[in-house]
Amino acid sequence: VFTMVLNRYFDLFDASRTDAQAFEDLVSLFTTDITFVLNGQPKHGIDAWKQFVRHVFTANQDIKHMYAGWEETTPGTYETRWAVCGKRADGSVFTQDGKDIARLDENGRIAYLENVPDDPTMFRS
After folding, report:
1. C-alpha–C-alpha distance, residues 115 and 35, integer Å
2. 40-49, pLDDT tens digit by residue?
């Protein structure tokens, strides 16, 4: 059941760039007090998460994620390898890969998500 939620995450993330309902569905996968980690820096709350997603979509004309499949690494913690290709707002293209680490609450909503890109400069502004 938990991996079904996590599997929907990547599909909804990509779709929500152009589909408002997909964005709402994406947001519904998370707890309101989500902790997400970028570049080792934790951010808290669903509003901060929404702001991050909107920033990704402003900075990029298009993105597409692929992932290897979520595996439970310790009880309640799941990891997957991912790759993303994209076209930035300036028209240049990029690829990136890394891993995500996620934990879900007892209701099956994502309470913690850590993005660990292989290139640590990926989310530097």
Report:
1. 11
2. 899 999 999 9
